[in-house]
Amino acid sequence: MSNFYIAHERNQLFRRMERITVDMMSDNGVVSGHHTVLHLSRELDALLAADDDSPRGSLWSRNVMRWWVLNLAPWPEKVPRDPNELSGFAPAAEAERFGRDFDALTECIRRFDARVSAGSMGPHPRYGALSRDDWGKYLYLHIDWHLSKLGL
What we know:
globular, mainly alpha
């Protein structure tokens, strides 16, 4: 299983991220490369800001669903989304901001990595407490899924 904490997989993920361009479009023509960068930054910021020790997910989602999502399931394309989740794809700022937004994303990933590695990451809102290995799978799968939608 792919994992952000496996060096060659992490390096491959970063090489793919470096190929994102501001005007690149997803395979469905809805999300640009800039939107993807903004979405990933917002998601990581939200996870870093979550200090609540009581996850919203149910016992089922914190155990069975977490294991299934991180170990077996392909990340879904046609799963109905909560409108709040889609808000991460708000309109992108002007093209000149892309470089700054990309730098902000890499900084979010660095802060996320530091928190997980230090063992100070709070629980995932849906899947509850995750191990370093599970956080690595989650981060890799999330970024990989969005990069694949951009054809990267």
